[in-house]
């Protein structure tokens, strides 16, 4: 049976470091890190995530502000809000919760955020810094940054000689994850829905990262014996065994069977999810310290 990574515990230790850095910033400059979270529309799942982000921000000692806009908000109105947050010196991090309702040009909204306040790491400037190996100068997308912390805890900082396979190629996760693994000297394959013999490709992986959005798709015979398996999927499926109409969260990995083959594996829930929020806090304190001429710790 594989070692199961406790994402909540690792996230708690990151949050502890963030809280200390935030207190040090405030003691030295009188400035509290400011995080603005913008949510448009009334998707209930999004509201759950946003409230846990606000709660965690307060726990870190941040000034946390939430802007809740109606679903009918226009592109111009949303970009005007971002512009006012860009100009607000008390705000160091801006997160626009995705997905936005269908009538928005999400990319235009994201690119309107100042790169130094883009705590999601989605601005082309931040994506470009990551792709060109400048890991210290920009802000890195929270979920891959969190997944990478698990990888470092398991394998150390140098992945020389190890094969890593990332299933998924989104700008939010797959591409930055592949870039981080490559920067750590892994030999990286970015697999996706059009990959041939996906199972065979995955069986080569010493580090297998699944971000496909298909419940329990990765099976035991896709996993190299002794591999590290990181599950980035969050899928809600029916759970009639829990009672009529009940659901539960599962990842993209068939956990029980893969845990028999892997040496280390992350659970869902309690794996990458809590780390995403912790790394958002880390990016916010990083942005606030840089804005005030201090060198942030490395997380
Ligand atoms: N601009 C933007 N940035 C994001 O980072 C972003 C976003 N939009 N939109 C939605 C997704 C999703 N996301 C999650 C964060 C934490 C958990 C999390 O903590 N999950 C818990 C379970 C939570 C539950 O029980 O529902 C866990 O995995 O243990 C999940 C999902 C951030 N996202």
TrEMBL record:
Give every Tetrahydrofolate dehydrogenase/cyclohydrolase catalytic domain span: 5-120
Q: Which CDD domains match?
A: NAD_bind_m-THF_DH_Cyclohyd
Q: Which UniProt keywords apply?
A: Amino-acid biosynthesis, Histidine biosynthesis, Hydrolase, Methionine biosynthesis, Multifunctional enzyme, NADP, One-carbon metabolism, Oxidoreductase, Purine biosynthesis
Domain Tetrahydrofolate dehydrogenase/cyclohydrolase NAD(P)-binding, first and last residues per copy:
141-290
What EC number is given for this enzyme? Answer: 1.5.1.5, 3.5.4.9
Binding of NADP(+), residues? 168-170, 234
Name under which the protein is recorded:
Bifunctional protein FolD
């Amino acid at each position: 049976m594989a070692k199961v990574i406790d994402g909540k515990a690792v996230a708690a230790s990151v949050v502890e470091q963030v809280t200390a850095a935030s207190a040090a910033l405030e003691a030295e400059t009188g400035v509290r890190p400011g995080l603005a979270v913008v949510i448009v529309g009334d998707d209930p799942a999004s509201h759950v995530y946003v409230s846990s982000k606000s709660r965690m921000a307060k726990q870190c000692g941040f000034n946390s502000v939430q802007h809740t806009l109606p679903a009918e908000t226009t592109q111009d109105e949303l970009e005007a809000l971002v512009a006012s947050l860009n100009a607000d010196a008390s705000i160091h991090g801006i997160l626009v919760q995705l997905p936005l309702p269908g009538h928005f040009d999400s990319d235009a909204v994201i690119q309107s955020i100042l790169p130094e306040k883009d705590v999601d790491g989605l601005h082309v400037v931040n994506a470009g810094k990551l792709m060109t190996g400048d890991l210290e100068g920009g802000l890195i997308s929270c979920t891959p940054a969190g997944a990478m912390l698990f990888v470092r805890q398991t394998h150390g900082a140098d992945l020389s000689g190890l094969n890593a396979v990332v299933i998924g190629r989104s700008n939010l996760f797959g591409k930055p994850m592949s870039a981080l693994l490559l920067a750590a000297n892994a030999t990286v394959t970015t697999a996706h829905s059009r990959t041939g013999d996906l199972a065979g490709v995955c069986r080569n992986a010493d580090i297998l990262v699944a971000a496909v959005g298909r419940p329990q798709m990765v099976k035991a015979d896709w996993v190299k014996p002794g591999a590290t398996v990181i599950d980035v999927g969050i899928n809600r499926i029916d759970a009639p065994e829990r009672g009529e109409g009940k659901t539960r969260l599962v990842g993209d990995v068939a956990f029980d069977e893969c845990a028999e083959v892997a040496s280390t594996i992350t659970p869902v829930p309690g794996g990458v999810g809590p780390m995403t929020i912790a790394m958002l806090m880390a990016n916010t304190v990083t942005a606030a310290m840089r804005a005030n001429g201090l060198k942030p710790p490395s997380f």
